[in-house]
Amino acid sequence: MKLPIFLRTRRWDDEIARLDPERDYEAIIFALSNHVFPFEILLAMEIAQLRTFTIPTISKLLHATGQYEREGPKRLDDTKGILSEIHRPGLESRASREMVEHLNRIHGLYRISNDDFLYTLSTFVFDPILFIDKWGHRSMTEKEKDAFYFLYRRLGELMHIRDIPQSRAAFFAWRQDYERRAQRYTSENEAVARGLLIAVQGLLPPALVPILEPAVVFLTADTGFRDALGLREPDPGLARSLRVFFAVYRRAARHVSLYEERKFEDSDIYRNYPTYPEGYDRLRLGPTKVLEILAKRGAERAVAGE
């Protein structure tokens, strides 16, 4: 008898168990993000963006551009689109390399330290791990955690990020040390974080808008993160409600999955790009002013015959 399509099985766990995280990291992350932990990874990646703003040198640059405060929804869509266009075809594909180079050209217009690149990379490795270990229907295995490290280490190499620690443990130790040295509150941190939160609120049902900020603080349970962004704690009643909700969610998710068969990346939730209702031009993703500068430089090189 065919099982209901919403019933969680061990299919994806068993498939991951057969894979090698150093060689098959893309297949492992595909299974995790599309079938095993789709909502958790989506939430964790949004929190990862917020975490980068706890570093004043990162938020100062973003605040100066005004991208999150003035164009928050576009910045969210551009980030999701660029990452999708990098990961979907596979990092070693021509299409992915083209998008990585597009991202490198965008970053090349700014003075960004290697440490800030490294820290941003670390959020994509560790925020999903930390979130799922706390809120997932099961903890991640060491193999799954290693797959996140190997995937983003390879992306970091393609982005020409230097001195990437050569093990997951070493990278996490580096991240913790960098937070001790660099993480602190500034008004720029808070302004950029609130720009992103306002953009996310625009995607939510009205009833959920007031609880977004306290829910983020509750889910991270990280006072350094909270204080560096100037965010408020949830009141005790809301905290209790959130704790009950996620406890129920975790228990239900052990047995039920909306994406056991279909891919989360094909869902309306994931494919929602409000800035681009008719679809996007993959090489036009990014800040408008930056793309104008890059286009002008490209035209000048063409005229010069380079």
UniProtKB/TrEMBL annotation:
Name of the protein in its database record: Oxygenase MpaB family protein
UniProt KW Protease keyword: no
Enzyme Commission number(s): 1.-.-.-
Keywords: Oxidoreductase
Domain (ER-bound oxygenase mpaB/mpaB'/Rubber oxygenase catalytic) ranges: 67-250
Pfam family, one: MPAB_Lcp_cat
InterPro entries the UniProt entry points to: MPAB, MPAB/Lcp_cat_dom
Single GO MF descriptor: oxidoreductase activity
Organism encoding this protein: Polyangium sorediatum
Keyword Chloroplast: no
Coiled coil: none
